[in-house]
Amino acid sequence: MRRILYNLFLILLASPLAAFSLDDAEQSILKGKAAEVIPLLEGYSPKTETETLRRMWILGVAYNRSGKSHQAVAPLARLVILRPDDPTFRLELANALVKSDQIERARYHLELAKGAGLSPSVQAKVQAELDRLAKPKKWQGYFRFAIVPESNAARRTSAETVNLSGFVLRLDPNSRAQSATAFEIGTGVATVPRLTDALRARFALDLDARLFDGRAPDEVTLRTSASLLHFANEGRLVSAEIYGSQRWIDDAAYAHTYGLGLSYTRNLGTRARATAVLQRERITYDGSGVGVNRTAGAAQFAYAASSQLVFRVGLRAESRTSSYSPVAGHAAGVTIGGDYSFAGGLRVGLDLSFDRNEFDGVHPIFGVARVDKKLSVMLNLSNQNWSYKGFTQVLRLGFEEQRSTISINRFRNATASIGLTRSF
């Protein structure tokens, strides 16, 4: 038995893992053999804090150099948390994030690295990368689909009766709240030709569809747009857009829209970003011919508290005018939320929204002015390190409740969305 144990000990001493060192790993990466050392690095047990940090660094670089950038994010992000003052770690993490299409996180780390005392040549390369990321690709596209069960897909009242001037009417069961499951699909393509070094045009076509199982109306929206985009220093982007859309409900034309949009975005230091949007549009309801002129504005402020945590707040307001007063009115809303990216790739987003919508005039049937107040919460979960043939999974869980002075406009709805998305 002793002889057997002794032979096993000699075999272990002769194994690659026993002879493996972090110096060997670095040399292998320099020789273009990064993929070969990854299993050895994953099985390596550091003996000191310095070795722990060095192993994380070499493992992240090995993943990056072997085309596994999604897997490089976790060790490099952990390294940046432990040593936030070292720009080398941050720049390698930004490189992995760019390769794994996590552009916003990459931009954040590049901005922080700029203020870390880089040499002039490295500083110039970082700024050039930031400028490149700010400008879109010549062709863009996306495709997504999801299964979406909802407790009240058509946003209908759960009340069984309504009171009309003292007369109590019983609602048809098919016009009340009921659950339904949708198959959602969205796709779009855009071309972004270069006009000058700072100016781009953008022409886009988008299709969104929500197809239900017969217990709620199907919805399809087709949108086309043409834009001009102007890029400047400090992450500034000014855009002007003209657009048009057509919406169908259960295969019948429901409404068409055309309008103009203006937006302005800029960085506020290295951690914050602000966006302002203005819209003016004309909505025409195809069945009745009623038209609505809508003017809307929105502003959003986002702040990166760390490389993993982002807070945001948004405000919005709109005014509607129409010859048919029950659809005219004004609305305002606020959203507060944030995202947290865990070292392992899990990303969690939470948003809480409140909207108040007031309509002009008196409702022709219920005899009162309509005022809606809606509260909603949405939880988003995704894993930035998991993908299948370029598709990333997204899980959304949400709840919304609307109170209204009109009883049939009160509703509650819980929703879950399980889907895949891909950008190219």
UniProtKB/TrEMBL annotation:
Pfam families: SlipAM. InterPro entries: Slam_C, TPR-like_helical_dom_sf. Keywords: Signal. Residues 139-424 form the Surface lipoprotein assembly modifier C-terminal domain. Gene3D superfamilies: Tetratricopeptide repeat domain (1.25.40.10). Residues 1-19 form the signal peptide. This is Surface lipoprotein assembly modifier C-terminal domain-containing protein.
